[in-house]
Amino acid sequence: MPGQALSRLLDRLPFGRNIIDGVPAAPPQHLPHREPTHVFQGFDSLPQAHGPRKLGTGITLLVHHPRPRPTRDHVLRVMTYNILLGGERRELLERYFATMEETGRMPDVIALQEASQPTAVELARDYGFHLTYQGRDVGGPVVNGKAILSRHPIREAAHFTYDFPDDARAAAIARQGYVGELDEDRGALFALLDVHGHTVALYDVHHSLGDSGINAGQVWQLQAILHARDGVPSIALGDFNANINVKHYYSLLPSPIRKHEPTETVKDYESRYGDVHPSVGDWGVGNIADVRVRRALHALEHELPDPLRRARELRVRMPDGSHMKPDEARELLVAGTYPKNSEQWLRLQDVADMSTLNSLPDGRGVVPATGKRFDTFFASRLLEPLLLEVDHSTEASDHLPSLADFQLSDRHH
Known about the structure:
Blueprint: H1 2-11, H2 16-22, E1 33-34, E2 37-41, E3 60-64, E4 75-82, H3 90-102, E5 109-115, H4 117-127, E6 130-134, E7 145-150, E8 154-161, H5 166-176, E9 187-195, E10 198-206, H6 212-227, E11 234-239, H7 255-258, H8 266-273, H9 276-279, H10 291-303, E12 313-317, E13 323-324, H11 326-334, H12 343-352, E14 375-379, E15 384-391, E16 402-407
Parallel strand pairs: 2-3, 4-5, 10-11, 12-15
Antiparallel strand pairs: 1-8, 3-6, 4-16, 5-7, 6-7, 8-9, 9-10, 11-14, 12-13, 15-16
Helix pairs in contact: 1-2, 6-10, 11-12
């Protein structure tokens, strides 16, 4: 379409993105709808999930734990984690959360994507979390479940399902050439928390990968939900299926200088990871190489900034439990400490860009570096990010857990 072609042209010109961002965006054509919520005191009366994936009926469940475990003082620790098809690698997943609890690293709040109802209920019940959960695998399109587990009281919960008209779905499937995930209805799971007397709103999302136009529309619909609670400190978190690291198409800085910088442009990604089309995404892939997705995310960041740009500390927890900072990994890469594409070089790339997406080994048994940060947080300026960590110590999913510590203050009342 002419408008899309103009956006792509401006995106590739110096200062073009400023022109794009300066043009007010039209309100989303489609708005999400709120699913019903059922409230339970304890887990004993909770109805069991049926169906092949045990995802539920589409009704949002809010379960108050009778004996929640204590929370941290003055700091809110939050995790987002896509646990892969309801916790497919169950033994590794159980071991990971058991270790988190034993070592005192268990977050106060956990947002899960691709969660089944039994997995979410078991984690919440056994580790002392209140729970809100939503999923559906009967009487409608198959969707992956989402859950928010919180040791802070949950005052309100709801699932907002994004509007996805039949004609838009059919057109997206035709563009992709197959159905894939496009038969799923995505949305945002909302929870209103009482954090030591402060009200904090959470929005747990799992956005579409297969079509960039659909992905961008979902970000705009998320913002419509956020606007309904203006003034409430908020965190939007989850699997955005867009490489949040990539902010621009290219930079005016020359390549010798850019090599010291994070992977923030499409051109950076091409030079460090390879072909942008399958890797970062083009118009047919729900990713941030599409200017429409980037523009929607820029608008979201204007209201809820990316903590990667604000956190006092950035780090990656390594498989042996040690920590490495992205700047440390980047220094080793720039210094040429390890040969390019060696195992050590690839893992340093993962750390340098705080990648949250794992890759399977290629035909030579080498695990590529993805450079993809799909899983992240966007948080109100009233919530100061102290720490952002990506945890590489588990292989329980094709995604890696991301954790953030936020500082609360009296201004949040």
